């Protein structure tokens, strides 16, 4: 170990080189030649700045590192070290300046140590020289083996790849100094899997076999070892590489059966699956591009086969309705191929990709079928035809049951049409094309059994009836016109140009003719022969005082067969104009025309209705008066609910009514006379209380007489209707001599009052008789 000596400038000055570039610390080293010049400085300085030591030295601690040497030669000189590792890792001999390491050093952890050397006076601790920084470098030894960045590597490569296909790059790191030869060099080799893969010097793993078939072996596990150039290896110098083979489409689909048989009902829906054809394809689903086709047979347009790669099957679906009565069995040959297969990897062509399919159709009871998917008939408007068109439905089964036709009520304009048992459609009402240009009917066909009862099998069909046009509408104005003309208009002045339309279907060659029904007006109509006409001033000057509005009846004819002519009224308003011909004062035509015919009709109907109602009321009153006069008026039934919120005053309140009569009846007295069955029931009205008398002044028959008077009045009042009156008493005096009048206690079994006479008062008292009368069943029980 050598320490290089350099002369450092004191106090931050530049360094001066000594005569020798380096002074050997080892005493055996020869001195530099005397011929080299030696630089002399008055101020002494350090003559060192760097030291070296090997890592992981085997000798006993401490290890000598080097010597701090200064040109200051005094007896009281003392050497010191400062820095992060001073006193811990490195220490210096205060007298000699020798530096020692008290720990074994690891270059892979710390490769350099930075320290500061001090020369101080032992007594005063003052610096004799300026502090000097120096470095202790740790020399590397080959003490680390390569370590992989991962213990396990995962990768994939397509199957059947060629030799030398790159798989993965693995890397191992050596912590030794790469600047030292062979200390950090890594050598790779395979410990497992070398028959299928190989590894190159850089750690790149490549394929060594071109027949890596995923269907035979999908995964490989290889072990890679890394060591340095000097052969140093360790436990962590190995890694495992897991290689998965990526699937490629290199296998043909193969049918699992040579023949497939299916049985399906004839009413299976078009497009519904009826069976599955299973194939074997070891490739993964994304590489299963199986194509199924019918190679023999005439049913290519009857069935289709849709592939399902996830389940390795083909699904057969009918493309047309099946009919048991027509074809009961289908037999054809199918083939399974894969057009996307990579022929480079194909070893041989399979012969098991052809199979036979047999489909048996079973019979079901089907609904009637119409011969056409829809029907289109034509009907001329304003005509009733016994036969517009016919629909026909048949029973597709062998039974050939009879069919009943009907038109659904929900059909558009179905109320205007009917259908016979034979399916003939006719109209019951003439149709106007301008109102109903099309009628869409839904016709039902129901299957009947031998007794004529519907079997529940039915089908429908749409019938579209087009109403053809007839020339039954006269032409009219294309729009409302409100022409105006100045009262001083010149002769030949254009008032308005008119045009016409026809509600009927207008052909391209339609020609409208215009004319005035009268020629004695101050207007002229000129037909332009292009379905328009001009209204111009005939003489000029109009007298607004005489007529402010002129009504021109315009005749418009079409060229249909037969030709129709219509009259449209054109109202021309005469206005005052200024010098520039601008209208200044015009009366609206509607104000001059007055009330329209429709308004007059509406007013007349209103007046007529009011008159009829007045006559009916007068007649009814007259009839009622006559009926009252003869006592034969028909009674009107009313129901009246009268609620009395007034409570009696108890036993002290005996001046208003004589209740002794009621008590006499209750305790077995004479019952009131029973009226005849045809006698009118009493009219219950609000009874006015008579004047109060002193106690004891009332007569015993006063209440009975009053009731009889009121009853007699009601019996002989022919104009008063009968009333059913409900009296509700909120409270009766507990001490009243009349006791309680509530109906809640009158139905007690100990009542001694006989209410059977209510049955003789007629049907109006029937309910009251049932409530208060005796029950024959109760009498039998006793």
TrEMBL record:
Residues 1-24 form the signal peptide. GO terms for biological process: adherens junction organization; bicellular tight junction assembly; blood vessel endothelial cell migration; calcium-dependent cell-cell adhesion via plasma membrane cell adhesion molecules; cell morphogenesis; cell-cell adhesion mediated by cadherin; homophilic cell adhesion via plasma membrane adhesion molecules; intracellular calcium ion homeostasis. Residues 78-148, 149-255, 256-370, 371-477, 477-584 form the Cadherin domain. The keyword Phosphoprotein applies. Keywords: Calcium, Cell adhesion, Cell junction, Cell membrane, Cleavage on pair of basic residues, Cytoplasm, Glycoprotein, Membrane, Metal-binding, Phosphoprotein, Repeat, Signal, Transmembrane, Transmembrane helix. InterPro entries: Cadherin, Cadherin-like_dom, Cadherin-like_sf, Cadherin_CS, Cadherin_Y-type_LIR, Catenin-bd_sf. It is found in: Cell junction, Adherens junction; Cell membrane; Cytoplasm. The keyword Calcium applies. The chain crosses the membrane at residues 599-619. GO terms for molecular function: beta-catenin binding; BMP receptor binding; cadherin binding; calcium ion binding; fibrinogen binding; protein phosphatase binding; protein tyrosine kinase binding; signaling receptor complex adaptor activity. One of its GO terms (cellular component) is adherens junction. It is a single-pass type I membrane protein. Part of a complex composed of AMOTL2, MAGI1 and CDH5, within the complex AMOTL2 acts as a scaffold protein for the interaction of MAGI1 with CDH5. The complex is required for coupling actin fibers to cell junctions in endothelial cells. Within the complex AMOTL2 (via its N-terminus) interacts with CDH5. Interacts (via cadherin 5 domain) with PTPRB. Interacts with TRPC4. Interacts with KRIT1. Interacts with PARD3. Interacts with RTN4 (isoform B). Cadherins are calcium-dependent cell adhesion proteins. They preferentially interact with themselves in a homophilic manner in connecting cells; cadherins may thus contribute to the sorting of heterogeneous cell types. This cadherin may play a important role in endothelial cell biology through control of the cohesion and organization of the intercellular junctions. It associates with alpha-catenin forming a link to the cytoskeleton. Plays a role in coupling actin fibers to cell junctions in endothelial cells, via acting as a cell junctional complex anchor for AMOTL2 and MAGI1. This is Cadherin-5. The gene is CDH5.
